Amino acid sequence: MATSVLARLSLQGEVRAGRSVQARWICNHPMETGFRVDDSGQKIPRNIITQVQCKLNGEVILQVSPGTGWSSPAFLNFEFTVPPQGGTVSVHWLDDRGEQGQVQHRLLLSS
Amino acid sequence: MSPSIPLDRRACLTLMTACLGGRVRAQELVPESALTAALRAKTWSPQGIHLEVPPLADTGNAVPLALHIEAPPGLSIEQIEVVLPENPNPLALTLQWPQARSQVKLQTRLRLAASQSVWVIARYSDGSERARSAPTIITSTACLDGT
Fold first, then answer.
1. For residue B10, is pLDDT > 70?
2. N or C, fewer C-beta in 10 Å, chain B?
3. Residue B79 and residue B128: Cα distance in Å, rounded?
């Protein structure tokens, strides 16, 4: 499903085999809590990110299940160790409406 | 008829505090949720858990949280829960590391409904739990009640 929610993933630190790097993910999801009402007094239905998976070369390294207490834009800064062969780090998300998205970043090893 | 007791704010607070048997300090007059009390009653060790939240945040919309957790020797971190006891939905985040990790570093942002202690509860591979909390004061709530 196409989504208008933009997300971005960037890396901090030197990408070297065996080194630890920080991945910073930010996603401008509205994270609608379901507690708010619109101008006509109607309750705005809840629409939050319910699942985030951070993957390294296709393998899940971190799984996040957020509640309504997560900020909008959603922000996550996590750490992982660069594998010797390099590869790809990616973050996948899924929300209450069934919308989903993914961003990925290639690990270009600096030697 | 002049009142026999002083009626300024400070005197009233002192009087109310005195009526409660001196157990409650003036700054704790806001009622806390049952969950806050339940969490405080637990006897978790805070060892190996470092968390950073601002002592005073302008709004509750995006309060930064920095975590650094080290597992006890020989154990790995299985799950971390971030609990905001005064929020309408207290469980803010559940984090799981499928691969065994002896230490994790993480930063994120939370939404707070009221001034409260942010609780981080870590569960290790042998099922044991440790937790630490840090208080934060917010001046305006993340608009959660629709007003």
1. no
2. N
3. 11
The residue type at B9? R
Q: Which residues of A touch B90 (CB under 8 A)?
A: 67, 69
B-chain CB neighbours of A69 within 8 Å are 82, 84, 87, 89-93, 110-112
Torsion of Cα atoms, B68 then B72 then B73 then B74, to 10°:
-110
* Residue B36 amino acid letter: T
Buried residues in A46-85 as b, exposed as e (16+ CB within 10 A): bbbbbebbbbbeeeebbbbbbbbbbbbbbbbbbbbebeee
B15 in any annotated domain: no
pTM check: above 0.90: no
Q: pLDDT tens, B21-39?
A: 444 444 455 678 889 999 9
B136 belongs to a structural domain: yes
What pLDDT, on the 0 to 100 scale, is given for residue B32? Answer: 81
Structural domains of chain A in order of their starting residue, each with its CATH number: 7-107 (2.60.40.10)
How many structural domains are present in chain B?
Answer: 1
Q: Which domain holds residue B77?
A: 32-140
Q: B34 vs chain A: nearest CA distance in angstroms?
A: 18
